[in-house]
Structures are given as C-alpha cells and as structure tokens.
Design brief:
single chain, alpha/beta, 9 helices, 40% helix
C-alpha cells in the first residue's frame, strides 16, 4: 500500500465559545478517511491537542490503524491549551481547573456533538492525555461518569490530590483506564517540583485496582517525552477502538 495514504488527513479548525472560561477555545478535528456525515463515529478527545497531532502523530497513527488493522474510523478532537496556564487548567488544585472541566463537559462536548456525527454515549468517547493531561482526563471522567468512561493516560501526573479524589470512590468498575508509565520517569521536573512519576503511578494503580477499575497498566523503559508516548498510542487506540 502506498505510504502516502497514511499522511493524507483532513483536519478542521474550530473555535468553541466558552462562558465558563470567559474566552473562546481553539480545537482541531481530525476526520477519518472516507468520512461520511450520514454515518456515526466514536470520538477521541485529546488534551494538549497540538502536541497529540504534532508530536504524537495521532492522525497518521489513526490512518494506519484504519487502513492496516481494520480499526473503526473515529473522529479526534485536539483541544488547544495555552502552555502558560496549562497547569492551572489541568492540575486538580489549579485555579482554572473547575472552569476548564465545565467547559470541556458542558460546552465542548455539546459543540462537537451538534456539529459532527459522533456517538453520544460514554463508551464511545475516549479521553486522552499526557502527564497533567492524563490527570485532567481522569478527573473529568470521575466528575462526569455519564459522559466519559474510557481514559487513555500517557505518564499521568497522578499525585496526592488525584489519589484523595480516587479514595472518595467506592466502585470504579464502570471506568476503563489504560495507563503507560516509563521506568525512567523517576525524576520528572514539573512546574510544581520534581516527582517520581513511576512510584506515583504504581501507588495510583493500587487504588484503582482496589476499586475494580477495568485497568490495563503497562511499565516499560521510557522517559517523560513524546518520543516514548508516540510509540504507545497505536496499541492504546486500537484497544479502545477495536
């Protein structure tokens, strides 16, 4: 098969108005090969949208999965973020976090579902994020279980605030979570300090298992970088999208 078909993609730029955030938010929407408005599609929502497209190569990966592996076509929504306020939006204790979560669940999802033929059930929506993007994805599912039940986490920043939130839950059997963490992620520098992400993820894994979360947890050699995460996206997407 000609490799060029993997690199042809249709990506639509949208602007989502937000009363919650007090300003518009840019998003990019990947339409799969053969996109047809008369059909319906699962949808993957990505935090750090530009990074997923540029560094994660998620559009090319999705084309390969559709053409080579028979994975069902899907729409991908990459949500823009201003890196200067990323921590305040994505971190559970951030001062913009509550507003961002409201925007995501109550403004972004309805906007996409009004404009595109995506399936409107929790098991047809996937939340994806790296580092703090994984954190906010998990917290969104916990806050809106009727909307989201599938979370894809690339080296999620699951620190004490997240574990306190998980401890409030008795049963997470409704949630399916894929977690990848690199064994080299023992000293990750962040805006909030240096953390051993490997140990933080291992501790979080136990909490999730105790609450019957449908968890697939993978450790392998890798650093806190897109060079590691990009290679994990294909199997994780294929797991959720079949």
């Amino acid at each position: 098969m000609d490799d060029q078909i993997y690199y042809k993609r249709t990506i639509i730029k949208e602007t989502v108005p937000s009363a919650s955030l007090g300003l518009d938010r840019a998003v990019k929407v990947y339409l799969p090969p053969g996109y047809n408005e008369l059909l319906s599609y699962p949808v993957v929502y990505c935090q750090d949208g530009d990074d997923f497209f540029n560094f994660g190569r998620i559009a090319t990966t999705m084309n390969r999965l559709i053409f080579d592996e028979g994975v069902e076509p899907v729409l991908i929504v990459g949500v823009d973020v201003d890196k200067r306020v990323r921590t305040s939006e994505y971190a559970p204790e951030g001062d913009r976090n509550a507003a961002y979560c409201r925007f995501f669940a109550e403004e972004l999802v309805p906007f996409i579902e009004q404009k595109y033929p995506v399936r409107a059930t929790a098991d047809e929506r996937v939340l994806a994020g790296d580092s703090l993007g994984g954190t906010v994805s998990l917290h969104l599912a916990l806050a809106y279980p009727s909307l989201f039940s599938k979370v894809l986490s690339l080296s999620g920043a699951f620190l004490h605030t997240t574990r306190e939130r998980l401890a409030e839950e008795a049963d997470l059997s409704w949630m399916e979570l894929l977690m990848v963490i690199g064994t080299d992620e023992t000293e990750v520098k962040t805006e909030r300090g240096v953390f051993n992400f490997l140990e933080e993820n291992r501790t979080t894994k136990k909490l999730l298992e105790e609450r019957s979360c449908r968890l697939q947890y993978v450790e392998k050699p890798g650093k806190h970088l897109w060079g590691f995460w990009q290679n994990e996206l294909p199997w994780m997407l294929q797991h959720f999208l079949g």
